Amino acid sequence: MIKYIETDEYKQIYCPDFHDGRIQKVFLKKIQQEIYVCEECESLWFTLEGIFLERGDFFTGFLKDKGQITKDGFDDWNSILEYRDFVTFDEIKEIVDKHKIKVVVLE
Q1: SS3 helix, strand, coil % of the chain, rounded to 5?
Q2: Is 105 helix (H, G, I), strand (E, B) or coil?
Q3: Where does the pLDDT of residue 75 fall: very low under 50, low under 70, confident under 90, or very high at 90 and above?
Q4: What are the beta bridge partners of residue 35?
Q5: Residue 50: its H or E element
Q6: Phi then psi for 58, rounded to 5 degrees?
Q7: What Å distances lie between residue 56 and 9, 104, 107, CA to CA?
Q8: pLDDT tens digits, one per residue of 1-60
Q9: Number of C-beta neighbours around residue 87 at 10 A
Q10: What's the confidence (pLDDT) of residue 66?
Q11: pTM of this prediction?
Q12: Residue 88: exposed, middle, or buried by beta-carbon count in 10 A (0-12, 13-18, 19+)?
């Protein structure tokens, strides 16, 4: 479990693995599932609570394993997924409180 989570002035949550990008909601169209992906390192989680409790999986590897993309990488991303909003602090506040995770506000 992580000890702290970073957020910015817009209350967007940053990746707990490498702290280099915001976590974005991504909807996988073919399997009708929403997942959470770091915009920079491509760490992925299947639940909001998983962001705090689990080490992120690798987004592109997951898509390949599920047959969502080919190994050639020439896929039509718009047919595979839909990028949605970034995860905000309001969405994870209960999880932060439950696990007593420190919140660091970036300047």
Answers
A1: 25, 35, 40
A2: strand
A3: low
A4: 26
A5: helix 48-53
A6: -100, 120
A7: 24, 20, 25
A8: 899 999 999 999 999 998 989 999 999 998 899 999 999 999 999 999 999 999 889 998
A9: 23
A10: 82
A11: 0.89
A12: middle
User: What's the structural domain count of the chain?
Assistant: 1
21 lies in which domain range?
Answer: 4-105
Q: Residues 59, 65, 70, 72: is their CA dihedral positive or negative?
A: positive
Q: Are 13 and 63 in contact (CB under 8 A)?
A: no
The residues facing 83 across adjacent strands are: 26
Instruction: Pick the closest to residue 92 from 33, 52, 59 (CA basis).
Output: 52
Q: CB–CB of 21/61 below 8 Å?
A: no
The tokens for 53 are 């409790």
Q: Decide if 32 contacts 20 (C-beta within 8 A).
A: no
Please tell me the distance from the alpha carbon of residue 29 to that of residue 89, in angstroms, as a whole number: 26
